[in-house]
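U., I forgot to send this yesterday:
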Amino acid sequence: MTIQTARLSDPAVRAFVTAVNAHDRERFMDLLAPGATMSDDGTDRDLTDWIDREIFSSNGHLDVDRESQNGRDLVANYRNDTWGEMRTRWHFEVEDGKIARFETGQA
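Result:
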């Protein structure tokens, strides 16, 4: 069963999922700490290129099924217009309320 976004435990992660699902790139960028990084399936990627390709130009959407580690680890169904839907895992490192790093990949 999907967890409602408003019920996600960590405020920064909740804002991240909200921005992704609203296709709000500006809000998404405001959530990131200076120098934020990310990886996809264990490989570090250029964050700006990745989010533009995998989230914002392809209508990315997250439906969270479960959370752990105080809301900083998620398992979710992620879909976009490029790849369709897939089961994914997400891990977030949050510093001073901003996302310093996120890691995603297939679950």
